[in-house]
Design a protein that fits this description.
This protein has about 575 residues and is of the alpha/beta class. It has 19 helices and 27 strands. Helix content is about 30%, strand content about 20%. The model has no long low-confidence stretch (mean pLDDT about 95). Pfam families: Amidohydro_3 (PF07969).
Length: about 575
């Protein structure tokens, strides 16, 4: 049951309300933040004494891989991943296992222990949406949603090639409702379709096989559709040539496609009170910039190209990006970009899988380890931090590890501490291959992020970017009662004492979800309900009917019947549709 609670005397960091370390109380009633409580309510409320501690909204992860067939393939592929990290059953919690790819129960507990309350799956293949929702349903404590992979979908490429934007928009709207997805994901546009034939694309204007459509045309078309429909979030772009030396150039050129696009967010929701406009104002959400930020021509001369992309973003207002940091150690690479996984296989010889999800997208999975002694890996570590430190405005950045690609989300405390502590960065530099310093700009950066900056990167901006700031990422009146309390006194914070910061970020003092205390000192103490968000997008009935004639005709080529294609709401835990583009 949603609770009534008072969080007293904490140093509050709430960037959406421009609150920067003020000592104040936070009141929650019936699961929502309220302005005040009555005397009777105060008497009966639970109380957290946050004196001398840091109070932020609950963490929001807008890009993580936590559910679906490729995630489960990662779990199955790595038995060693499970005996290295396991969780014993208690009277309250399930058992679990997995380090880079935890089981569904363990990942929910691990996120909550760090102060996160909301996590979005970054790539849902339409045909595997039921599987994805089953795993999100089973993940405890976290409000969730996911992005539908559409950049190499047969119907999208067909309609875009024909220039039939009305049918394309109707198809996207129908697919969001059909698979209970939230936003549009575009992975290596045109290239993944080519991978079905063992090929890729190498430029924005190279047409793919059969459909003869280019990445530029796909990106532009999906963006036009996204804004026509008034979607909650921008197109989430995984740019072409990911992970190749020199890819920063095509990344920057891809971002230029979105320049000048007028954003339109048309959601019928109740907005929490904020001082900063909580609606989205970006036309592109670039994923994992680090992996798209290499310069050079080969692995022998590769170097960081992040500054080139960061300089562009610093001078433009239409881009937001997440970082895709690589904090060293074990990882499991999983992506809808099949060619990229094959490239890693040829480099490493590691076991791998590659899947073509019939007529819709593809994916690949490969175990990986990042070593400080490896020149490229050390460079990647530096590049990931450059993504967040070279972009001047923190409202253009989001902190991620592209979990588990750069490393598991449980490494977030390390990333947070590197961002806040130059001393910690220098210590890590001393352990790295010299490429980290020689081929990046990180060694010359003395910027240290503040707790306010960190609250933007991990709470306010992820929520604003994906259109969830009407209820997430802030402590304004009407917001969800999701709160993190860290045992950090901002007045005594010493960035040189990075070991203390690491300990604190690894285990939140309290995590509050919907007004219920769910974590105390990193231990789960209660299991309230959760929600699954999706976009219920409206278009004219006639447009949808015309489009469905095409879809039903083409379904003779699918391995399942049309009636079994949709994901019923029963697969979702507490389904919470966002009404989009509806008539009022």
């Amino acid at each position: 049951m949603a609770g009534t609670i008072t969080i007293k005397n904490g140093y509050v960091f709430d960037p959406l309300n421009e609150i920067n370390g003020e000592i104040m109380d936070v009141f929650i009633k019936d699961g929502k933040v309220v302005r005040e409580l009555s005397a009777a309510e105060l008497k009966n409320a639970k109380v957290i004494d946050a004196s001398g501690m840091t109070v932020m909204p609950g963490g929001v992860d807008s890009h993580s891989h936590v559910a679906g067939a490729k995630v489960n393939a990662g779990r199955a592929m790595r038995p060693e991943d499970h005996y290295k990290a396991n969780l014993q059953k208690t009277s309250l919690t399930h058992s679990g296992s997995g380090y880079t790819v935890p089981s569904v129960y363990k990942q929910g507990y691990d996120y909550s222990a760090m102060g996160y309350t909301t996590v979005f799956e970054a790539a849902i293949p339409p045909l595997e949406a039921r599987h994805t929702h089953e795993e999100m349903h089973a993940t405890p404590l976290l409000d969730m949603g996911g992005y539908l992979v559409l950049g190499n979908n047969f119907f999208m490429m067909r309609y875009l090639r024909e220039g039939d934007m009305e049918k394309a928009a109707a198809y996207v709207a129908w697919m969001m409702k059909t698979h209970k997805a939230y936003g549009i994901k575009c992975v290596n546009p045109a290239g993944v379709e080519n991978w079905s034939w063992g090929k890729n694309v190498s430029s924005l204007d190279e047409a793919n096989i059969h459909f003869e459509i280019t990445p530029r045309e796909i990106i532009k078309g999906l963006t036009e559709i996204n804004e026509h429909l008034g979607m909650p979030m921008p197109v989430h772009l995984h740019a072409n040539n990911l992970g190749h030396p020199g890819c920063y150039a095509i990344t920057k050129d891809s971002l230029k496609i979105f320049d000048g696009v007028k954003t339109r967010q048309d959601m019928d929701v109740e907005w929490a009170e904020t001082k900063i406009d909580p609606s989205r104002n970006r036309s592109v959400y670039l994923s994992h910039l680090m992996f798209n930020g290499f310069a050079g021509t080969t692995w022998a001369d590769c170097e960081s190209g992040v500054k080139g992309v960061a300089d562009y973003i610093n001078n433009k207002d239409h881009v937001v990006t997440d970082s895709g940091c690589t904090p060293f150690g074990e990882a499991t690479v999983m992506t809808g970009d099949g060619p990229a996984i094959h490239d890693l296989y040829t480099l490493t010889g590691n076991k791998w899988s590659s899947t073509d999800v019939e007529m819709e997208c593809g994916s690949g999975v490969l175990p990986f380890t990042y070593y400080k002694s490896n020149p490229v890996h050390s460079l990647q570590w530096a590049m990931g931090l450059e993504c967040l430190l070279l972009i001047n405005d923190p409202w253009k950045t989001i902190m991620t590890t592209d979990s588990p690609n750069g490393g598991p989300f449980t490494k977030y405390p390390e990333v947070m501490t590197w961002l806040m502590s130059e001393a910690f960065r220098k210590q890590t530099f001393s352990e790295c291959h010299k490429w980290a310093n020689d081929r990046s700009t990180l060694g010359g950066i003395n910027r240290e992020l503040s707790l306010y900056d960190l609250a933007i990167l991990t709470r306010a901006n992820p929520a604003k970017t994906i259109g969830m700031a009407h209820r997430k990422g802030s402590l304004g009146v009407g917001a969800d009662g999701d709160v993190t309390v860290y045992n950090i006194n901002p007045q005594q914070l010493d960035a040189n004492d990075y070991e203390a910061l690491l300990r604190t970020f690894r285990k939140a003092e309290y995590t509050v979800k919907d007004g219920e205390i769910v974590v105390v000192k990193g231990e789960v103490v209660s299991l309230p309900g959760k929600r699954t968000y999706y976009s219920d997008v409206h278009v004219q009935d006639e447009r949808e009917k015309e489009m469905l004639v095409d879809v039903k005709d083409w379904f003779r080529y699918y391995t399942i019947g049309f009636a079994n294609y949709p994901t019923p709401e029963k697969y979702l835990e507490n389904p919470t549709p966002i009404q989009v583009n509806g008539e009022r």
